Structures are given as C-alpha cells and as structure tokens.
## 1
Amino acid sequence: MASRRSACQNWRYSVRPRIFKIIEKNKLGSSQCIPRLVGEKLYQVSHIYGGEFVIDLRAKTCSCRSWNLCGILCPSAISAIFQRCENPIVYVDDCYKLETYMKAYESVIHLIPSMDQWSKCGPPPIKPPLYKQQPGRPKRVRTKEPCEVEIPAPIPPNPMPPNYIAPPTKLRRVFIEIRCRGCGQKGHNRAICDRQNNETQQVRASSTQMEQGSSSNTVRGRGISRGKA
C-alpha cells in the first residue's frame, strides 16, 4: 500500500496512466464522429460509417452503453466534448481519478512486534484436558501399521515344478505374537496347547476313575423281608 501511494505522486495527469492511454486512443476515433447539439449538454452524434448515438453529458451516458458500463469516454462522447472545448478527463468516472485512488490506499497497516514483546492480558492460557486412566492394563508397545512389517515370500520348492509362480510378498496384518498361559511358549494359546490338553485329559481320566470307584462302594439300598400272610 505504501508503494501504491508513492506511485501516485508520479502521475502526470489526474487519472491513472492506463485510463489516459485509452482516452488518447478514443480521441483518434472521435475524428470519425459528427456531433450535433440538441439541447443543454445533449448531443446526437453520427458516425461516418453509419450509426446514430445519443450523448447526455449531464448524465454521463451514451446510447452505445460503453460509457455507462465502464465509466471511460467513448469516441462519440469525446467528439461532443471537443465541440464544447472542454477537457475529456473531467467527464471520466471518479473511480479512475487520483483522489479516489489515494483514498483507497491512505490507510496504514500498523506494525506488530514479535510475540515475546506482547503484553499478557485476558483469560489464562488454555490447558490440556485432565487425563483419566482407562480400565485395563495399559499398552507398553505401540501397535505397528501394516506398512511397517513385511513378510518375505516363502522359499520355492525344490525341485521347481513347471509353471511355478512365486507368491508375492505380503504385509503382516497381525503384529501381536501370542503366548500360551499354560506352558509359557509363544506361537499358540492355551486352547491348542499340547501340555494343557494332556493335563486336561489326565484330570478327566482321574475324575472318571474316582467316580467309578465311588459308585462301586456305594450301597444302593436294603431290602425288608416280609412274611407271607
């Protein structure tokens, strides 16, 4: 914004340089127009190649609508202004003039020092939420992503069968190696553990023998002999 303000001081005219070039170009085209005064600042302009245009300098309008849309004088309007011996720049819209341009960039963006120089004010800083310990044993090892662990392809058989296609290398999906609670070894659980199964079978066999022994020693009942009547 400061550079725009300093550039305005180098303008030679009261409008922007680009707008001034457009007006100079339209001045050459105004030589092909013939204006005729109808009333106070009201003209009818005839083009030498055909066409009639109505110019109202008081309302700053033209029937070709070029002046109405962009606010820059068309060749027909410039020919009417030249007949009045006036400066065409006066009739340019105010948004292209130096005064409006300076008002748009007259404000100043105030400078801000670094954060260590800011004054501490207002409410206290926001703190993280309180930690609530969840039930269960906390995790000690981070669960790895599938892209972190890669399983190599299996070793091909020997001898190699014809048309053998080696399986591709896969990524692991399960990363927690289970451990049996019965024997303490890795790779299986208690449900499929041989030691646990053997102990379970022994317990079942001993319980079955005990039941059979207890049933043989148990007296089922005593009969009462009754005489014949």
## 2
Amino acid sequence: MIERQGVVLYGPPAAGKDTVTAALGELGCSYVPFARLKAGPGRTAGYRMSSAERLAALEAAGDVIYANRRYNAVYVIDRPGLDEACAAGVPVVHLGQVAGVRALVAGYPAAWLSVLLWCPREVTAARSTARGDVDTDARLAAWDATEQDLERDPFAWDLRVETTVTEPADAARRIDQLLKERAGAASA
C-alpha cells in the first residue's frame, strides 16, 4: 500500500505559498491546493467559507486538526477536507504557525514534506502592496509573528527556500523531486 503524501508550505505572508503551489500544479502532477475552512471577514479566494457553528461541530466531532485566529477570522485544517484532498492527489497545505505544522504532521497520517518559504519583511510589504492587500500592516505584524515563531520553536524543515532568489518553478521542481525520492525510498 502506498502511503499518503502531502506538502506543507510554511512561511510569512507573501512569501510565495500561493505562487509555489501554482507552480506545483503546473508540473502536471496530482498536487491539490488544500483550501482551509475559514469563518470571518477578509479574503474568500482559496478558502472554504464556513460558519462558527460548523467549525464548532467539526471540533466536537474531533475533526479539527488545527485551528488558528488571524485577521479577525478563524482558519481550520479539518480531517474531512484532508481526506478529500488526499483522495484527489497530494494536498498542499499553507501554514504560518509552527504549531500548525506540528499539529498537522502529528495529527493526520501522511508522509508530510515540510517546506519553509522565506522572504525578508520588506519583500512581504512590497508584495502585499502590489497584490492590493488592504491590510498590509496586519500582514507585516504576521511576518513579525512568524519570525518570532521560528525563534521560539525551531523545526527541522525538509527544505528551505528563499523566494527572493529561487524562481517558483525551481522551488516546485525541488519539492516534487524530494517527494518522489521519499516515495521511492519508502517503496524500496
């Protein structure tokens, strides 16, 4: 039996998680962007919008792998959503908290490849402004929190990518190659 695989992309806002995920999709492989559940205001693209009541029901059923609050909203990684994404291919999960990466890796059985995507704070500011975010100040506060998170909770990343010097297609190829190498080693 082939073990389920997944990719977790961790990094501050505007580090390139969406861009690298799109590049993974262009490889012609079965990478599936995982849309977290979200309850609250702000962007809706890339999320499965939900209600606080629905999130509470998932939590009561034990189906919440990880939940966090940011930008006045609640974001949830849920077991049914991951089951669906794994059935469709290799889920690519975006996170901005090391605790979330740890909860995902420990709480959902799959061979997770953990990738740290990084960019300097001023790059986050420029990218956020360029994409039209109306909450760039909040995203910079999240960048600061991400940096502090890494200092407080070191994690052994499988791959680190500086997105100011690595093209998204190159990052995607590196991720894909590492995932294939792991799958080959597991089946040998």
